[in-house]
């Protein structure tokens, strides 16, 4: 009976990783979000390079800046996780090394993104804008 | 290794493909540097000044300039990948031309951003 199946039916869900459409789409959707976010990041970095500590705190207190920073970190770390995962899957073939690197990638992205977002929220939500004495 | 570097003649679309991965891995480190900035800001003025002076050091600047090139390259080539996903621009002539265009754009945009940074005093 399997002879009656179309090539698509056979191909579906049977790539090298036995899954991937969701991963592929997620990588592209996050890349679209990162187009404006990364351009904003360049603009933000130029501004922040001019600021001292107090001005940087005040800048992060701005709701739009805080939200864009959180989105920038969240989407970047999601996209980075997708991207490096493919690199590991392509080049590392020993099962243990591959699994270890995939888990390390997930944990680094989860921890890095989590810490960065927590730090931004902590600054942004810490009461009234910081005023230098 | 994939594709097989030892049997393939070097060509520009191969270079842009390899650069896309290399810049992606570079930007991975760049995002961790960005996360470090957020942590330093949340840790108080001393940590922040320490971190910012590290970024302003010669090595820090070299890394940041490299990240600027990596960002513009990965951004432009990523957009080209999205165009390719729609099935357009895949013929060899167009792909070769867009490869050169993207490398030139990444370098020009990076120099422009750093020229702006110098002119506004963000980099001294």
Automatic annotation (TrEMBL), chain A:
- Which InterPro entries would you find in this protein's record? SQR/QFR_C/D (IPR034804), Succ_DH_anchor (IPR014312), SuccDH_FuR_B_TM-su (IPR000701)
Kindly indicate whether the keyword Heme belongs to this entry.
Answer: yes
- Subcellular location, in the record's words? Membrane
Q: Which UniProt keywords apply?
A: Electron transport, Heme, Iron, Membrane, Metal-binding, Transmembrane, Transmembrane helix, Transport, Tricarboxylic acid cycle
The record's section on CDD domains has: SQR_TypeC_SdhD_like
Which membrane topology describes this protein? Multi-pass membrane protein
Q: In which pathway does it act?
A: Carbohydrate metabolism; tricarboxylic acid cycle
Question: Which positions, given as ranges, span the membrane?
Answer: 32-51, 63-88, 100-125
- Names of required cofactors: heme
Q: How does it assemble?
A: Part of an enzyme complex containing four subunits: a flavoprotein, an iron-sulfur protein, plus two membrane-anchoring proteins, SdhC and SdhD.
Q: What NCBIfam families is this protein classified in?
A: succ_dehyd_anc (TIGR02968)
Function text: Membrane-anchoring subunit of succinate dehydrogenase (SDH).
Name assigned to this protein? Succinate dehydrogenase hydrophobic membrane anchor subunit
Species of the source: Caulobacter ginsengisoli
């Amino acid at each position: 009976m399997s002879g009656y199946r179309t090539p698509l039916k056979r191909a579906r869900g049977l790539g090298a990783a036995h899954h991937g459409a969701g991963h592929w789409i997620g990588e592209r959707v996050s890349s679209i979000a990162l187009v404006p976010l990364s351009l904003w990041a360049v603009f933000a970095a130029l501004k922040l390079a001019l600021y001292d500590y107090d001005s940087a705190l005040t800048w992060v207190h701005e709701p739009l800046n805080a939200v864009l920073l959180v989105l920038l970190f969240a989407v970047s770390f999601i996209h980075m996780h997708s991207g490096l995962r493919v690199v590991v899957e392509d080049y590392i073939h020993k099962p243990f090394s591959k699994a270890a690197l995939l888990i390390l990638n997930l944990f680094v992205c989860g921890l890095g993104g989590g810490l960065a977002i927590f730090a931004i929220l902590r600054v942004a939500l810490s009461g009234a804008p910081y005023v230098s004495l | 290794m994939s594709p097989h570097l030892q049997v393939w003649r070097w060509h520009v679309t191969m270079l842009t493909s390899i650069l896309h991965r290399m810049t992606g891995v570079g930007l991975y480190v760049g995002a961790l540097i960005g996360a470090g900035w957020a942590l330093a800001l949340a840790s108080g003025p001393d940590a922040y000044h320490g971190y910012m002076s590290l970024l302003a050091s010669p090595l820090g600047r070299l890394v940041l300039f490299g990240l600027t090139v990596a960002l513009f390259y990965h951004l432009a080539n990523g957009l080209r990948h999205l165009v390719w996903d729609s099935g357009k621009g895949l013929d060899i002539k167009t792909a070769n031309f867009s490869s050169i265009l993207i490398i030139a754009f990444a370098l020009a945009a990076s120099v422009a951003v750093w020229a702006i940074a110098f002119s506004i005093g963000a980099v001294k």
